[in-house]
TrEMBL record:
Record's protein name: WD repeat and SOCS box containing 2
CDD domains xref list: WD40
Phylogenetic lineage: Eukaryota, Metazoa, Chordata, Craniata, Vertebrata
UniProt keyword terms in alphabetical order: Repeat, Ubl conjugation pathway, WD repeat
Hydrolase listed as a keyword: no
Ranges where the SOCS box domain occurs: 380-419
Pfam families for the chain: SOCS_box, WD40
GO biological process per UniProt: intracellular signal transduction; protein ubiquitination
Source organism of this protein record: Lepisosteus oculatus
Domain of life: Eukaryota
Family annotation (SMART domains): SOCS (SM00253), SOCS_box (SM00969), WD40 (SM00320)
PANTHER family per record: WD REPEAT AND SOCS BOX-CONTAINING PROTEIN 2, WD40 REPEAT PROTEIN
Length: 437
């Protein structure tokens, strides 16, 4: 189904704030660290939201937001009108408070299953799973290098992982339900843990020249990408635990994320540059800038990017920067299709973001401990995009280029249309979505 350009969200449209979480402890007057929300995450099924609200505390809240209690929550008027006291009382026991004892820098739910992995698991139905693999877990990375792993249902601490020697800056579970956990640290290492085996020993990946800020795992669990504040993306084999190659950029990289099909890798740099890469060939397919809009806020010249994430269907991605703006981008379009740059809403320097697994909402965490929930475009991907995602999940760029199919089809399957001019790329994007708004 093809759409007219007018059917797309207008560029720069204001994102709607649908809810806000306020920290229990206010920011310290002397400006010391401690209250920052360094990480926010939704559980794989979208039923829980984890919030690192500073001072060593993680809050596990039931999603959707209308069904959680009023502890620390500031809702929009629309949200308040849909809440009743009975709903609050019936769900308050499902909220959990995890006292980690140290500043929490990173969060990750597991096991985490991609849609393909879910289908494979449902088809297999092979043997009973262990108690650990059948439980929803939350891993928390701490200031002292310890990773605490909790059971979400009970809120009980299960065990600690203790090999890191500095801040655990990033955590991510493999998207195949195998309980493989990858951790990145200020000790300049990545560590790969198998939580179903000997949890006292991890595979260590060394070679980063600086702190590991961010890492991500490809949907087929073959590649780990990591960035450490240098101008290179590090690619590692998750199968052989070896270094593969660099992707060479020009700016200091702070965040990275694979698209849901693994065909794209997006990176964010301190310099506010966003790059969409082909992780197989190392090509930079498109470069964007998280430019600030002076009409809303006067931004200092040294504002930095902080985080970037793909949406669940892979047609959008969100970026967060210290200019207090979260922006939603569409593949192939140079300008954001949504942003939150407007006055009258409490928004401080952004640090992190996470999409709800069913889409429609992105959560952002800020330096003063707040969390905002923003509406995002709700779309139904076209059949052609779904076909591309299904194919690219298991087929590399080189394999696509070797297929006996027309070049235009190869360009589409390898996202080479992203490198075209703005007008042409916008039309291709419009053919890939059906708006629900």
């Amino acid at each position: 189904m093809e759409l007219n350009p007018s059917d797309l969200k207008p560029k720069g449209e204001t994102a709607t704030l649908i809810g806000e979480l306020k920290p229990v402890h206010p920011q310290l007057l002397d400006g010391r660290a401690g209250c920052e929300t360094w990480s926010v995450e939704f559980s794989p099924d979208g039923s829980y939201f984890a919030w690192s609200l500073g001072h060593g505390i993680v809050k596990l809240l039931l999603w959707p937001i209308e069904q959680i209690s009023d502890v620390g929550l500031q809702r929009s008027t629309a949200c308040k009108n849909h809440i009743c006291n009975a709903a609050r009382k019936s769900h308050v026991k499902k909220e959990k408070t995890l006292d980690c004892g140290q500043t929490v820098w990173s969060l990750a739910f597991g096991p985490r299953l991609s849609k393909q992995a879910e289908n494979q698991r449902d088809d297999a139905k092979a043997g009973p799973s262990s108690g650990l693999s059948s439980s929803l877990l939350l891993a928390t990375g701490l200031n002292n290098g310890i990773i605490k792993v909790w059971e979400v249902k009970t809120g009980h601490l299960l065990f600690n992982l203790t090999e890191h020697r500095d801040v655990v800056r990033d955590l991510t579970f493999a998207p195949n339900g195998s309980l493989i956990l990858v951790s990145g640290s200020r000790d300049k290492t990545l560590r790969i843990w198998d939580l179903t085996k000997d949890r006292k020993k991890a595979h260590v990946l060394t070679g980063h020249g600086n702190w590991v800020y961010s890492s991500c795992i490809s949907p087929d669990c073959s590649i780990i990408a990591s960035v450490c504040g240098h101008n290179q993306v590090y690619l590692w084999s998750l199968r052989s635990y070896t270094f593969i190659r660099y992707l060479e950029g020009k700016h200091c990289l702070i965040s990275c994320d694979f698209s849901p099909d693994g065909a794209l890798l997006i990176t964010a740099a301190f310099s506010k540059e966003l790059i969409l890469w082909d992780p197989y060939t190392g090509e930079a397919l498109r470069k964007l800038s998280h430019c600030f809009s002076p009409e809303y806020f006067p931004a200092p010249p040294d504002v930095s990017m902080r985080a970037v994430r793909f949406s669940p269907e892979g047609l959008y991605f969100a970026s967060v920067a210290e200019d207090r703006a979260v922006r939603i981008w569409a593949l192939g379009i140079d300008s954001p299709v949504m942003e939150n740059c407007y006055t009258g809403v409490h928004v401080s320097n952004g640090l992190c973001c996470a999409f709800h697994p069913q889409g429609g909402v992105v959560a952002t965490g800020t330096r003063d401990g707040y969390v905002q929930f923003w509406s995002t475009p709700r779309i139904v991907p076209s059949l052609r995009h779904l076909s591309r995602v299904s194919l690219r999940h298991s087929v590399s760029t080189y394999q696509v280029m070797a297929l006996p199919i027309p070049n235009k089809m190869k360009d589409f399957l390898t996202y080479r249309t992203l490198a075209r001019c703005h007008e042409s790329s916008e039309l291709h994007h419009l053919q890939d979505v059906v708006s629900l708004n």
